[in-house]
Amino acid sequence: MNTAAVLDICLQALLAAAKLAAPVLVTSLVVGLAISLVQSITQLQEATLSFVPKAVAVAIALIVCGQWMISEMVSFTNDLFARIPSLLGSH
């Protein structure tokens, strides 16, 4: 196994992690921004007003995107297992 193969695997792993984290992070960002906008307009500075809606939105995002996230991870894992013979040198 050479360094190019290791770097390629690391790059694929980082891209997979970014793709899997994106729906949850974007949902949390959008809901947090909307809640902070509402809080600044109404001047309600309650901590639970920002936490509970974000938690619910993230749970909904996981329910909606969960199937896709699992299939992406299974695909990535299958690709890694398929590459084992070429990484060990036996073509």
Automatic annotation (TrEMBL):
Location in or out of the cell: Cell membrane; Bacterial flagellum basal body
Protein topology in the membrane: Multi-pass membrane protein
Record field: transmembrane: 20-39, 51-70
One GO CC term on file: bacterial-type flagellum basal body
Pfam annotation, one family: Bac_export_3
Keyword hit for Membrane: yes
Transmembrane among keywords: yes
GO term, biological process aspect, one: protein secretion
Keywords: Bacterial flagellum, Cell membrane, Cell projection, Cilium, Flagellum, Membrane, Transmembrane, Transmembrane helix
Function noted in UniProt: Role in flagellar biosynthesis.
UniProt xrefs under PANTHER family: FLAGELLAR BIOSYNTHETIC PROTEIN FLIQ
Stored NCBIfam families: fliQ
Family: Belongs to the FliQ/MopD/SpaQ family.
Protein name: Flagellar biosynthetic protein FliQ
Species name: Sinomonas humi
Lineage summary: Bacteria, Bacillati, Actinomycetota, Actinomycetes, Micrococcales
Gene assigned in the entry: fliQ
